[in-house]
Design goal:
heterodimer, A: 252 residues, alpha/beta, Rossmann fold, 6-stranded mixed sheet, 4-stranded antiparallel sheet, 10 helices, 10 strands, 36% helix, B: 280 residues, mainly alpha, 75% helix
Chain lengths: 252, 280
């Protein structure tokens, strides 16, 4: 059933500017795929295409296919809202809903999709917070505003919020770039835990982080996928000169 | 030496800035003081509970005008708030490149239309077809004044909601209309409420648009399609009348009207406080 995602000839534009020039990539189920590359290379745009968030921006459009378990997410009869329920997303800056409590933040996706009633809701919120390794820290302050937590806690709250709707894939767009090393370590630990249940795609600027958490790494440069391989191989024995230049710090 | 000079200049400029700030609020303070001096003694329980007395009889009150003003505000809000708030949301959330620009521009023009012209508009639109002055006509006129204010402040406040919150909600698979209703509007609530209060304070004191729409009424209005009393109209009528007692009543009316506006503004302030973007 879960055979991951296949991206075929994916192109993306902002207005008339093409930012992705035909990406082909296989994303294995229940593995962590890291996307690295210099700023502006299209990494973020790429993962935003995987849950159809790219098209939310005015003037943005895409072409090509993204298959999830064999079905094209860009097929004509597919509702982007359903895609986003199946493919969750965590952003660069923690963005809990400021008007909602910790509990309501996690419950938001369920409630607004009309999925759950009260008892089941509380169970699901607890399970999601447990999965996001945040339950022990917030179980006595579920009524407090989500914005009152620390940055690292807020990011794990956002992960719990994304997990609550049971996505098959979790996209993470530089989830640690606004966090300190301790909070980063917690999130990385969590990512390794999460891949037992779902597929993770993480964009990161931090090559050590890619090496620590991912099974497969793809290197992007100027809107193209230069190389994609087992993480250990890509970092020790890249086949493309440009990949080697980047990971050894010769540019970017 | 240079340091000394800079300190002196600093002090002088500081003083000038403080004096300017005080001069800005001075007219308001003078108006308030003068109003209270002239009118406070005539504000009594009768003023709030009695109808105007016939010419020549002392006493009486403006109960009908107070209720009338509140009724007119309610009628205007009934039209102005839903349209203004929904329109303001549209101006931000729409992906149409042209229509929001046009609406914004026209709303600013409408905001600049003299209120007497708005009155003529409501007269033509409502009074002429109905063949009588009415509360409804007054409400329509006031709604026209309220609308651009609510529209533009709602737009500003909805625009302030960080885009990251919209994206967070969309990425959860929440349909766009629910994102607006459950995430964007609650986040912008305090600001929108301020805009609503400001617009109410503004229309509460409008006189010109009511002159030939609501028209005024010395008695209780029975229905909304009849002429209705309003505080500004009553103040106007009493102030230009040749009776000292009426003048005193006009002053009292002005005090009550200012108090109403002051309380509305204060409520707006209190509503915004402590709800700044959810950070406590």
């Amino acid at each position: 059933m879960a055979d991951g995602m296949f991206v075929r000839r994916l192109r993306a534009w902002f207005g008339s500017m093409e930012v992705l020039h035909g990406i082909d990539l296989a994303i294995a189920a229940q593995q962590v795929t890291a996307i690295i590359g210099p700023s502006g290379c299209g990494k973020s745009t790429f993962i935003r295409c995987l849950n159809r968030m790219h098209e939310v921006v005015a003037g943005a459009r895409t072409e090509g296919q993204v298959l999830l378990n064999g079905a094209d997410l860009y097929a004509g009869d597919v509702d982007p809202v359903d895609v986003r329920r199946r493919v969750g997303m965590v952003f660069q800056r923690p963005n809990p809903f400021p008007t909602m409590s910790v509990f309501d933040n996690v419950a938001a996706g369920l409630r607004m999709n009309g999925i759950s009633r009260n008892g089941a809701l509380a169970d699901k919120v607890e399970a999601s917070l447990l999965q996001a390794a945040l339950w022990d820290e917030v179980k006595d302050q579920l009524d407090k505003s989500g914005a009152s937590l620390s940055g690292g806690q807020q990011q794990r709250l956002c992960i719990a919020r994304a997990l609550a709707v049971n996505p098959e894939v979790l996209l993470m767009d530089e989830p640690c770039s606004a966090l300190d090393p301790i909070a980063t370590a917690k999130i990385e630990e969590l990512i390794l835990e999460l891949k037992r249940r779902l597929t993770v795609v993480i964009v990161t600027h931090n090559m050590q982080q890619a090496a620590r958490v991912s099974d497969v790494t793809g290197f992007f440069l100027m809107g193209e996928l230069i190389e994609c391989d087992q993480t250990s191989r890509l970092f020790t024995n890249p086949t493309d000169q440009r990949t080697e230049d980047y990971i050894t710090g010769r540019f970017g | 030496m240079r340091f000394q000079l800079r300190r002196i200049v600093n002090r002088v400029m500081n003083g000038l800035a403080a004096a300017s700030a005080f001069l800005v609020v001075l007219p308001l303070l003078l108006i308030l003081a003068f109003l209270v001096y002239q009118g406070a003694s005539s504000v009594n329980l009768d003023f709030f509970t009695h109808l105007p007395k016939p010419v020549g009889e002392p006493g009486g009150g403006m109960a009908n005008a107070i209720v009338g003003t509140l009724t007119l505000i309610g009628l205007a809000a009934l039209v102005g708030l839903p349209l203004g708030i929904l329109g303001g949301v549209y101006l931000v959330e729409s992906r149409d490149p042209r229509l929001p620009w046009a609406v914004r521009f026209l709303a600013d023009v409408l905001n600049g239309v003299p209120s007497i012209v708005v009155g003529i508009f409501a007269y033509t639109l409502v009074v002429l077809p109905m063949r009588r002055f009415s509360a409804v006509a007054g409400g329509v006129a006031l709604a026209c004044i309220m609308l651009p204010i609510v529209l533009r402040t709602t737009e500003e406040m909805v625009r302030l909601v960080p885009n990251s919150l919209r994206e967070a909600a969309l990425a959860l698979g929440i349909p766009e209309w629910k994102v607006v209703l459950r995430v964007v509007l609650p986040t912008a609530r305090a600001g929108i409420l301020t805009g609503v209060m400001v617009s109410i304070a503004r229309i509460a004191g409008e006189t010109a648009p009511l002159l030939f729409t609501a028209f005024g009424n010395r008695f209780w209005h029975q229905r909304l399609d009849q002429p209705i009393a309003a505080l500004p109209l009553q103040i106007f009528a009493y102030a230009i009348a040749p009776y000292d007692d009426w003048h005193r009543q006009a002053w009292a009316g002005a005090v009550v009207l200012i108090a109403l506006i002051f309380l509305t503004s204060l409520a707006a302030r209190l509503a915004t406080r402590g709800r700044v973007r959810g950070a406590r």
